[in-house]
């Protein structure tokens, strides 16, 4: 289905590209350079009709922002079936900015999809693996970069599972929570600490290995029970999916929270263990390795301490909800690092399909509608392939080099938030 979309590109008409004065802006790591639409490889053959409807989805979140109001309003008057009108709209309203990261204008483009699992509402010998909701004892504390440098922090309980920092204190008093930063693994990307309260101390939440061993289970609501532990692991990697019950009905689940431990690639672990070469790593090859080495499955999964908790989503024919809060569109939504690419913005992607032999170009105007724990950096994206087995085939093999151009409303300058 997705490869077929390439052949439709030839129907797009050429149009004069807008010209903008070259500008450059940067952060310590990521640089943005304004370019012309004519500089975007394959722009004249971009599937802009579907891109427009994806922009209209993004506008559900963007339309209240001043710089996007006019664009969102005017986009609804454009006929998505008229390629020339769609291209003229983007070229007249947006400025493309090429991204580079640490001096490199190419980066890693991976893929994800919405998987389908077999399961049940109740535990049984056929469905023994729990799909957990957010634990009731998981607490979250937002911290700033300056606060990360302090060895001791004090917080008090806020609403729900939130903790609130007590400014100026280093020693907890009665009813307060002591946080020792050395207990947590933090870096300049850590915006929140996640943990559990033991006495008056906040400790890191349980790792994947500890949760799989039964730690904290009495605090974790179970949304469903899955048949296959490997498929459940990859559901967590993808962040959303559907579970088909015995009666043929479906439960849709999506990312709700995470245990606070950083994502570690099990593919990298297999390479480091000498089990496969880096060029061999894919979702399919990992599943094959697990099938051949079932006695090492727990060891492999434990290499990734991150654990994702889900929430049940409304069942419908649309894609799963991304971090922007709108349904994802297969082939036209991407997950990005929101420190460098604002959620909702159009992004022009130039990469290749993950095909054996000679890869074919994949150039497309997509939209930043999601995030991911492994999506870090300015030239980094995760391409959403959609739902089902074919989408999973492409997503599991997607590990391509690619380039990104951020499209912003004319007059709006990129601003990164490290």
TrEMBL record:
The keyword Cell wall biogenesis/degradation applies. The keyword Ion transport does not apply. Residues 116-311 form the Lytic transglycosylase MltA domain. InterPro entries: 3D_dom, MltA, MltA_B, RlpA-like_sf. PROSITE patterns: PROKAR_LIPOPROTEIN (PS51257). Keywords: Cell wall biogenesis/degradation, Lyase, Signal. Residues 1-20 form the signal peptide. This is peptidoglycan lytic exotransglycosylase. It comes from Vogesella amnigena.
């Amino acid at each position: 289905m997705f490869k077929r979309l390439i052949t439709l590109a030839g129907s797009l008409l050429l149009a004069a590209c807008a010209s903008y004065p070259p500008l450059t802006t940067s952060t310590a790591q990521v640089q943005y350079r304004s370019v012309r639409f004519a500089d975007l490889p394959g722009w004249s053959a971009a599937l802009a009709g579907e891109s427009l409807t994806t922009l209209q989805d993004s506008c559900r979140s963007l339309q209240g922002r001043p710089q996007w109001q006019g664009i969102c309003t005017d986009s609804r008057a454009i006929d998505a079936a008229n390629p020339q009108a769609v291209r003229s709209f983007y070229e007249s309203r947006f400025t493309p900015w090429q991204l580079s990261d640490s001096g490199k204008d190419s980066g890693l483009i991976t893929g994800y999809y919405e998987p389908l699992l077999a399961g049940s509402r109740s535990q049984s010998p056929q469905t023994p693996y729990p799909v957990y909701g957010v634990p009731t004892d998981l607490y979250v504390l937002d911290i700033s970069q300056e606060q990360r440098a302090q060895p001791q922090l004090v917080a008090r309980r806020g609403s729900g599972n939130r903790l609130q920092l007590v400014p100026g204190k280093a020693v907890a008093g009665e009813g307060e929570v002591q946080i020792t930063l050395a207990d947590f693994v933090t870096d300049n990307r850590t915006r929140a600490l996640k943990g559990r309260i033991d006495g008056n101390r906040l400790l890191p939440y349980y790792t994947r290995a500890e949760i799989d061993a039964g730690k904290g289970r009495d605090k974790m609501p179970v949304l469903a029970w899955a048949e296959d532990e490997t498929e459940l692991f990859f559901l967590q990697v993808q962040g959303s999916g559907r579970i088909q019950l015995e009666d043929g009905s479906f439960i849709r689940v999506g990312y709700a929270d995470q245990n606070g431990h950083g994502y570690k690639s099990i593919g990298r672990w297999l390479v480091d263990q000498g089990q496969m070469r880096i060029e061999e790593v894919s979702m399919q090859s990992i599943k094959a390795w697990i099938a051949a080495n079932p006695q090492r499955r727990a060891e492999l999964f434990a290499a990734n301490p991150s654990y994702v908790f889900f929430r049940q989503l409304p069942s419908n024919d649309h894609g799963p909800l991304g971090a922007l809060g709108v349904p994802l569109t297969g082939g036209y939504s991407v997950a990005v690092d929101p420190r460098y690419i604002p959620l909702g913005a159009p992004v022009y992607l130039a990469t290749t399909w993950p095909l054996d032999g000679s890869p074919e170009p994949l150039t497309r105007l997509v939209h930043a509608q999601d995030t991911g724990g492994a999506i870090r950096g300015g030239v980094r994206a995760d391409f959403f392939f959609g739902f089902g087995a074919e989408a999973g085939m492409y997503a599991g093999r997607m590990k391509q080099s690619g380039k990104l151009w951020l499209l912003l409303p004319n007059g709006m300058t990129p601003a990164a938030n490290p």
